[in-house]
Automatic annotation (TrEMBL):
Top-rank taxon: Bacteria
PANTHER family according to UniProt: MAJOR OUTER MEMBRANE PROTEIN P.IA, PROTEIN YDDL-RELATED
Protein name: Porin
Pfam families named among the record's database cross-references: Porin_4
Organism for this UniProt entry: Paraburkholderia acidiphila
Length: 379
């Protein structure tokens, strides 16, 4: 009997110790609002929406101290719609991220699962669309061609992220094809780095997806994730922000090159490029934010995009001009209300493209305006 009591006491003590060295955190963002679209397929549209600005999502993250500055870590994140309760990202339970791995204070973290690429990690935070948790959907570059708004995540991804070395961070990711005899059939790899110094923030990133139009549905990207249905995508860029006490100013440049492009997923006006030829997008963004009070800020961004589309009818060079202005007021540390207006104009150069603000129904003309008001709550 005494031995049983001693064993039970030791087990309880071990359980308490393990619990004290572990942590699990529940978090999320809920964005609910109303929007007005000046031209949704030829008609104006007033609509209730979820994630007009920030994608609504929730997640669970946790860690266990293994000793010696090493921890076991995991993260599960799920995107959803507030208006109807359905899952986003193709109906996945954890469509944002799902990974587990090890993290060390000196050497960084190594994780495996569904994760963000290095362009999202190191370059996107310098852009207006990628700065906020969950992104700013109405400010994405046309079709989110550079993935700064995190339109797709990477499956089967092995990822390394360094610790902060005096303001410098770097990392890399490899998304496996998971196909026997097809190592590069629907794979993705990326790398990036950032550096903070004296009020300046620098970032750069590169990603390459091979055979994104493959029938291999178990690879790095799936049809519900892909922005482009193309044989190859290369995206790279760099950016800089300057941060003062109340203001932030930024510039970001990105370029995306596509080979063997069939279509752009979700775009309804790109039939001319469904012939396996190429396309490219070059984006130039300037952004600024100013905190008038600890509760109230004004934010703005302008992006100029040069496009090049190849078709059997020749070359087309559309140009996009996009402006967004946002007012944001915090009711508390976790709850804010916002109003945002985004305007897009496209010079289509004979391509027949219509304006198409991210996350909205495309316009039947070369212009589109979207105004959104809403509330975000973080937990």
């Amino acid at each position: 009997m005494k031995k049983t009591l001693v064993a039970a006491s030791l087990a309880a003590a071990y359980a308490c110790g393990a619990h004290a060295q572990s942590s699990v955190t529940l978090y999320g963002v809920i964005d609910a609002g109303l929007s007005y679209n000046s031209n949704a397929g030829g008609h104006s549209l007033f609509a209730a929406g979820s994630g007009n600005v920030t994608g609504s999502h929730w997640g669970v993250t946790g860690s266990e101290d293994l000793g010696g500055g090493t921890r076991a870590i995991f993260r599960l994140e799920s995107g959803f719609s507030v208006t109807n309760g359905t899952l986003r990202q193709g109906g996945r339970m954890f469509g944002y991220q799902a990974y587990a791995g090890l993290e060390n204070n000196r050497y960084g973290a190594l994780t495996l699962g569904r994760q963000y690429d290095s362009v999202v990690d190191y370059l996107a935070p310098l852009s207006f669309t990628g700065r906020h948790p969950g992104g700013n959907n109405l400010s994405a570059h046309p079709y989110d061609n550079d993935n700064l708004n995190n339109s797709f995540r990477v499956n089967n991804a092995l990822k390394y992220a360094s610790t902060n070395y005096g303001g410098a961070k770097f990392g890399a990711l490899y998304g496996f094809s998971n196909e026997a005899g097809g190592f590069d059939d629907n794979r993705l790899y990326s790398f990036g780095a950032s550096y903070d110094f004296g009020g300046f923030e620098f970032g750069t990133g590169y990603l390459q997806a091979n055979n994104g139009g493959s029938s291999n549905t178990n690879g790095a990207l799936t049809l519900t994730d892909r922005t482009f249905i193309a044989a190859q995508q290369r995206t790279y860029g760099a950016g800089v922000n300057y941060v003062t006490r109340n203001a932030r100013f930024g510039f970001v440049w990105t370029r995306t090159q596509l080979g063997g492009l069939d279509t752009i997923n979700g775009a309804n006006s790109l039939g001319l490029v469904q012939n396996g030829q190429g396309a490219s997008f070059s984006n130039y963004e300037v952004n600024a934010s100013y905190m008038f009070t600890p509760q109230f800020s004004l934010n703005g961004v302008y992006t100029y995009t040069q496009g090049a589309l190849s078709s059997s009818g020749g070359e087309h060079h559309p140009r996009w001009h996009e402006v967004s202005v946002q007012a944001d007021y915090f009711l508390s540390k976790r709850t804010d209300v916002y109003a945002q207006a985004t305007y897009q104009h496209i010079s289509a150069d004979g391509s027949g493209l219509g304006a198409d603000i991210s996350g909205q129904s495309a316009s039947s003309t070369n212009q589109q305006t979207v105004v959104a008001i809403g509330m975000r709550h973080r937990f």
